[in-house]
Amino acid sequence: MNKNMTSVALACALLAGCATPAPAPTPNPVDPTHRKLLTLDAHLDTPVHFGRAGWDFGVRHDPTTEIAQLDLPRMADGSLDGGFFVIYTEQGPLTADGFAAARRHALARSALIDTTLARHADRIGVATSAHDARRLDAAGKLVAFKSIENSYPLGESVTALAQFQGQGVRLVGVVHSLNNQFADSSTDMPRWNGLSPLGRDWVAEMNRLGMMIDASHASDAVVDQLLDLSRAPLLLSHTSSRTSFDHPRNLDDARIRRIAAAGGAVCASTIYLGDMRMSPRRGELFDQIDHIGAMTPAQQTALGKEWLALEAATPMWSTSFDQYMASLKHLIDVAGIDHVCMGADFDGGGGFPGLADVSLLPRITARLKGGGMSDEDLGKLWSGNLLRVLDAAAKAAQ
């Protein structure tokens, strides 16, 4: 959508993503190296938009009028070949009713991902293994894995992990921003001092099933215990270094080294690399975005207008592209190039001016290549390390 659209068309397109697609922008030149790499992001929260009335994953949406940061055309612009599409569940009460409601939500979100991908099966394919990802890439298709952020919907048993595995989930985060029945969160007061007894069962079941353990959002004590207990290496799907920005959501360098020594990988995030300007009103809007699929088009439009106005006045993150690149390079220096991957957290709070949506990802490759990084190491960073950890989880189960 361009700025010359009629007012009627613009009102329709502001957030609801109606039938009139944005015209393709003049493409920015993308380095051939980035085009030839298999590029995967470990944490894509875009399924929050899949259920929106009138919103089409296959249509280009204008970032100046649309809050979603990823769609199939912009994946092409940024040469992002795919990644893990997230089943996120907001933390609720640790009660039978709370668990049941969370399970219904997670299963519905999983089904919504399936139906959305099926609608675009000519352009993007479902993957459950590293082999699938490489096969789809060789066939010229984008790659879609599924993951769970927050194990809260599992309830008070780990048996539901097998159910979600059967639906294609291969990566599961143990906790989110508040403590749950399995573990303490990095941003909550300790309840279990790490994993709960049920959380220890969760680790064993994840290993038995061959699913990747995602330690993003977990407290330091949980990370330590996951490292001690897991037979398979850990993945942190969207985490930054605490040295780059001192926040409990980030991980200290000593633990990053331990994760690398155990064969795991940390996927560089765009969040918590600077101050978060989360005013009370912005916090209310942020919480509403997870329920945007239940809103009317008019409500979606109003939400989008207000969010984008706040972003234009004061971006939520006080982060620059140079800060992000310095953080990424620090992570590589600490963990080693064999243990870093990419997880920007698009559509989940990630992005900042200069890396505001998926179309701008080639800037990262260009900066790293300009600094002397080899094509081989770029391949490790963009997908090789992530797929290696996925393979290692499957082999540990065997």
Automatic annotation (TrEMBL):
Keywords: Dipeptidase, Hydrolase, Protease, Signal
Top enzyme category: hydrolase
Tagged with keyword Hydrolase: yes
Domain of life from the UniProt record: Bacteria
PROSITE patterns found in the cross-reference section: PROKAR_LIPOPROTEIN (PS51257), RENAL_DIPEPTIDASE_2 (PS51365)
EC number of this enzyme: 3.4.13.19
Pfam family, one: Peptidase_M19
Descriptive protein name: Membrane dipeptidase
Example GO BP: proteolysis
Aminoacyl-tRNA synthetase in keyword set: no
Signal sequence range: 1-24
Molecular function (Gene Ontology), one example: metallodipeptidase activity
InterPro entries for the chain: Metal_Hydrolase (IPR032466), Pept_M19 (IPR008257)
